[in-house]
């Protein structure tokens, strides 16, 4: 059995990038003009599952032992990690059970089911999703694949940074990254040691920013506001993510729902890309002038799984 | 002065591809699953102007003599060729006048104006756009850059085929291409001599298909039906395009508005890409089973410039 308590490493990111390059083409690094600045977007929304989470899912599941594979996997996710794990599980012939909030976007529920995973629903305010998962795990003995508090998942997400450096031909000066639990930001920190990493979180859900300021994990309050960024609502970051990010990342910035919608409209009309709210947070920070931009700055577009009706409302305001 | 009556050549396509590679990164070639088939889409909608027309515009304008550049250029276009010419003109410091139909999508009018071109509007049923352009040209002496009946434009569009072969590592077996006047299809025929080229046209606007069957240029009737594919409504193809395509291309297939909308929805939900109606015609043909698909088949997504309101209506049916 593999040790999920080990720390993620830069070597691990390199190995993850090699494994991922063997099965997935790099996602495009596309030029973008924002005001007078010219920089780059990394279009992770163009991954086969429509989100970067395929990286961590593949690195984790493909490293499981035969015995672990036979037990199956469990994941908890609003939808993108769900699809990443389900995609990898299908390809490896592993049974996957995914615990998803009842209010997850319908496209994410449908897509996860279409990948052959079993879905268990919970109610977002009220039920503790980790308890639901723990009960299932106790019964089945399956391996829990955490959405961000896992060394393989962090290394896997970091492989996007390896691709960026290859595509640019040098280390980026800065990466602006949408941030939920901090798996991507931590992975990018390991992949691109010279880059400034800026995590961008929804206003009121800046659990990584608050943790970096406090020096310890902070839990979201019961009164945390609503956000349209369904993919960026962790109850808290985790010590493994905070450990990597401490000293490497500023607390970052937060964005409002309106700024996120504006970023979705920009991606639609200027980039011809479909980006979901949580996938547009980093672009929102760039467009609203909250983060400096230079020619070697990369903005992560982390996902594009969004219901047609809500996307239609957003672009046709 | 350059000879616009010369024939386009494969060497010209190679030279166009080199010129374009020097200023524009290749557009992504993305894997796609259609039913049981796995093939590729070439995402030309991700060009800086949101359409492949930047290729022909750049190859043509950058080859103008200094004397021609000083006279300025004129183009006639519903919007994508307009932007291609305007983009190249701005970069080269050339004055551009674009004749556009009054019913062109507002985003295309706005984007062309934003690139610094002067816009002259005409009424699509009623006024003859070529007459409007000829009058302007007689007055100003500017160089007319035809949207498809031009050897540079054909060679420029063909550069997409050079990129495809480089990205695949071999010649594609087949390319399914959205088709208006036949500039892209002719260019791809020269670029990829071993590939089967299938032009896809809107039902009732198959001026290339009709010309290939008749062995001569056929003009659209006054009673040609409405189509949502604003980019694919040529009054007729031209001898230069027909000459290249004859013997190289089957007449191809036609698609209905409903099939095009279904393709736009597929691109939105499965590929996270914004594709305009005319840019989705080839995908529509692939999805509706009208064209065989294999692992080396490439489907051109030629443009993504669409008004938010109509795109919202299409995806949220």
Structural summary, described in words:
Chain A is α/β, with parallel strands linked by helices. Chain A has 2 domains: 12-51 and 151-316, Rossmann fold (3-Layer(aba) Sandwich), CATH 3.40.50.1100; 54-144, Rossmann fold (3-Layer(aba) Sandwich). Chain A is built from 13 helices and 10 strands. In chain A, the strands form 2 sheets. In chain A, strands 1-2-10-7-8-9 form a 6-stranded mixed beta sheet, with helices on both faces. In chain A, a hairpin with a 2-residue loop joins strand 1 and strand 2 (37-43). The model of chain A has no long low-confidence stretch (mean pLDDT 95). At the A-B interface, strand 1, helix 11 and helix 13 of A face strand 1, helix 11 and helix 13 of B.
Task: Itemize the secondary structure elements and their pairings.
Two copies of one chain form a homodimer.
Chain A: H1 10-21, E1 29-34, E2 37-43, H2 54-62, H3 66-71, E3 73-76, H4 80-92, E4 96-101, H5 106-114, E5 118-122, H6 129-140, E6 143-144, H7 151-168, E7 174-178, H8 183-191, E8 196-202, H9 207-214, H10 239-245, E9 253-255, H11 257-270, H12 281-287, E10 297-301, H13 308-315
Parallel strand pairs in A: 2-10, 3-4, 3-6, 4-5, 7-8, 7-10, 8-9
Antiparallel strand pairs in A: 1-2
Helix pairs in contact in A: 1-7, 2-4, 2-7, 4-5, 7-8, 8-10, 11-12
Quick gist of this model?
Two copies of one chain form a homodimer. Chain A has helices spanning 10-21, 54-62, 66-71, 80-92, 106-114, 129-140, 151-168, 183-191, 207-214, 239-245, 257-270, 281-287, 308-315; strands at residues 29-34, 37-43, 73-76, 96-101, 118-122, 143-144, 174-178, 196-202, 253-255, 297-301. The first copy, chain A, is α/β, with parallel strands linked by helices.
């Amino acid at each position: 059995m593999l040790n999920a308590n080990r720390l993620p490493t830069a070597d691990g990111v390199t190995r993850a990038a090699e494994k991922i390059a063997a099965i997935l083409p790099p996602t495009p690094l596309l030029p973008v003009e924002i005001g007078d600045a010219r920089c780059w977007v990394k279009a992770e929304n163009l991954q086969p599952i429509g989100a970067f989470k395929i990286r961590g899912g593949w690195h984790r599941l493909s490293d499981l032992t035969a015995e672990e594979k036979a037990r199956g996997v469990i994941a908890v996710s609003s939808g993108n990690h769900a699809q990443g794990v389900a995609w990898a599980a299908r390809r490896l012939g592993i049974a996957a059970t995914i615990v998803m909030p009842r209010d997850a976007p319908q496209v994410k529920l449908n897509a996860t089911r279409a990948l052959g995973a079993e879905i268990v629903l919970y109610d977002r305010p009220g039920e503790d999703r980790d308890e639901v998962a723990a009960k299932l795990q106790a019964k089945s003995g399956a391996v829990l694949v955490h959405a961000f508090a896992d060394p393989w998942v962090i290394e896997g997400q970091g492989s996007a940074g390896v691709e960026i450096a290859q595509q640019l031909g040098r280390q980026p000066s800065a990466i602006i990254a949408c941030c939920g639990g901090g798996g991507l930001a931590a992975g990018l920190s390991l992949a691109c040691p010279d880059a400034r990493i800026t995590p961008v979180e929804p206003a009121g859900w800046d659990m990584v920013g608050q943790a970096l300021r406090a020096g310890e994990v902070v839990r979201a309050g019961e009164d945390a506001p609503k956000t349209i960024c369904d993919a960026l609502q962790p109850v808290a970051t985790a010590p493994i993510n905070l450990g990597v990010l401490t000293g490497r990342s500023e607390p970052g910035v937060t964005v409002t729902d309106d700024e996120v919608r504006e970023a979705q409209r920009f991606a639609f009309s200027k980039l011809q890309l479909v980006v979901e709210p949580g996938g547009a947070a980093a672009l929102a920070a760039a467009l609203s002038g909250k983060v400096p931009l230079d020619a070697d700055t990369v903005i992560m577009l982390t996902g594009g799984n969004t219901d047609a009706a809500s996307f239609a409302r957003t672009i046709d305001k």
